[in-house]
Amino acid sequence: MLATGNPGKAKEFKRMLGERYRIVLQSELNLEAAEETGTTFLENALLKARFASLQSGKPAIADDSGLEVDALDGAPGVFSARYAGEDATDADNNAKLLEALHDVPEAKRTARFRAVVVYVEHAEDPQPIVAEGAWEGRIAFAASGQGGFGYDPLFIDTADAQGRSSAELTPAEKNARSHRGQAVKHLCGLLAAR
């Protein structure tokens, strides 16, 4: 079971895990979402996985991820989804980020997406499987692209020769490069070796 209510994340996970695993979303089982009270991505991913597994009685996968901007001392970090407030939209968060970086020159706009993905066999699993990924880039001065979600329109992949935002990449390109793609690939390897 995938412990998320985020439709963008759900799509990415389904694409990345493909037919190897049958994915049931937390929302399909009408389960409550865990309260994200952790101070790290790992803590929040574990909270979500354990809570979903406790409610469903099934193994669960959960992730916590976010954007770390160097000029903002790593913010928004674990608060990425609620950077502009508890009920913030992607547009609200992007607007707040652009405002926070208003006077920051391009060379100082370095950032990364970070993800931690966790798998638990059951809610009290003493040895959860943990996989991580990071995707280096920089923050653009304006949004571009129609794909993705969250901060994708502002995140420029520094390894992309064309200087495209994450929202301008195809889903396959994004999954091959992204923090979540790296973490899920690592998780699949760890699950296969179990």
Explain the overall architecture:
The structure is a single chain. With 194 residues, this protein is an alpha+beta fold. The mean pLDDT is 92. It has one domain (7-193): Maf protein (Alpha-Beta Complex). The two termini are 18 Å apart. β2 (110-120) and β3 (129-139) form a beta hairpin. The chain has five helices and four strands; from the N terminus they run ααβαβββαα. α1 (7-17) packs across α5 (179-193). It has a four-stranded antiparallel β-sheet with strand order 1-2-3-4.
List keywords for this structure.
194 residues; alpha+beta; Maf protein; 5 helices; 31% helix
Write a brief caption for the model.
This protein is 31% helix and 18% strand. It is α+β, with helices and mostly antiparallel strands and 194 residues long.
Helices and strands in order:
Elements: H1 7-17, H2 41-56, E1 60-69, H3 90-100, E2 110-120, E3 129-139, E4 155-157, H4 171-177, H5 179-193
Antiparallel strand pairs: 1-2, 2-3, 3-4
Helix pairs in contact: 1-5, 4-5
